Each structure stands twice: as structure tokens, then as C-alpha cells.
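Table 4 source record.
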Amino acid sequence: MTSEGSPTPCVKETCVFLTEYGARLLAAGATCIRIEKNVSRMAHAYGMCAEMTVMPRHIHLTLTDIHSGDMITSTAAVRDTGANFAVNTGLSRLSWEIADGRIDFGEALRRYHDIITSNRQNPWGVLLLVSLANAAFCRLFGGDVYAMAITGMATLAGFRIRQLLLGRSVDIRLVFIICSFVSSVLGATGILFSIGSTPAIALGTSVLYLVPGIPFLNSFSDMLCRHYLCAFSRFADALVLTCCLSIGLCAGVWLMNANMF
């Protein structure tokens, strides 16, 4: 895709841009219906009609110029970047700026490149907030202050390992097994050393940060909108990750002889 474009782009460069846009939005964790609405909104702003097929690993788009009748089809692969709410929000905002006519095509390309390349998340801030949130979950399920401290510590270690391993492009399934194992081992220290009155809750909530809630929710949304292939794919991915989480948890419980089963 070219880095510059005219205010009224041709069908080819618009189709390539919108196809890559849809693939990035899908990789960022957007639902299929959001992708269709955003792409159709931008295509209409450029005087074109979009027919899109959203597949689990590819975006297939056919774009037709309403005035000239010119038609072109483009396909883009979905990169495994993981859910990213900042990218999701930024790309959705970009679609409205294009639809409202506030930016031309060249500026849209620059904004798109900036959104997908910039990292607006502070990894240390995310690490701290996730640890505090999981400790709050422990309290929500009835854990005492000792259980909350153990859960926060287990989450801190497990999530940091997750960040490091994903940064090295380690397979996500292996990452889930390793992180849930580490967190469950640390979470079981309350049972092992009889710390507090609710050590079992600390162990049970120490791996909650790994639950793949976004794929489960997106699969349900896609199913309601009749995107059955994506719905099944996302549900299968979430189920596999849940199984990996369970494997690591059971291994940690067995190693620490926590007698949970």
C-alpha cells in the first residue's frame, strides 16, 4: 500500500487500504459486525460499495465504484497481534473521521500507520493494574487480605512472564501453560504455609487474569450476527487456551501438593 494518496483515491488503492484495515481490526479483537460497519462506512464516504467476507485468518473484500462501475477484489491475512483496545478504538475513530470528511485519503493512510505502529500502553502500568484487578477479584470472591496479597504477587509474576514470552513470539498456548503454572505455584503458598483463612481462594483466583474472556465474548457476538465460521474459530481458540490454563493450574497444584482435588 502506498504511503501517499490523493483526496479522491482510485478503487484499487482504496480496496487495498480497507482490506488491510479490516485485517488489523480483526487482529485487534474487534467483532465481525464492527469490521463490516467500519469498512462499509469508509467505502461509502469514498463513493464506493463494499462486499466483505470475514474469515478467521483472512479478510476478502470486493469494492465497486458506484459511479464508474469499476470493481476490484483484495485479500489480506490477519496477523496474530493479540487483542489491543487502543488499536481497536483508534481504528474505529479513524473510520468516523473519514466518513465525516474531516481528513483526505493521504491523511487517512498516515493516521492508520500511526495507529498500528505506535504503542500507547505502558507495560509496567498494565502489569500493576492487572495485578491489582486480580487481587480485587480475590476479594470479590471472599478472600482475606492475605489471599489478596498472594493473588497480587502470583498475578504480578505470571503476567510479567507473559509479557516477556509474548515479546519473544513464543506460542500463546505454551505461554498460557507456563504462566498458569507459575501463578498457581505462587498462589498455593497460602495453603502450603497456612497463611490467612482463605488460602484456597488465593489459589483459585491467581490464574483468573489468563481467562480468555474477549474471544469467548466475540464468538458469541459473531454467532448472533451469523458469522458462524469466525464464531466457531474464536470459540475453539478460547477453549484451547482455557485447556492450556487448566493444564498449568493442575500441574502447579500437583507440584505443591495443595490437595485441591
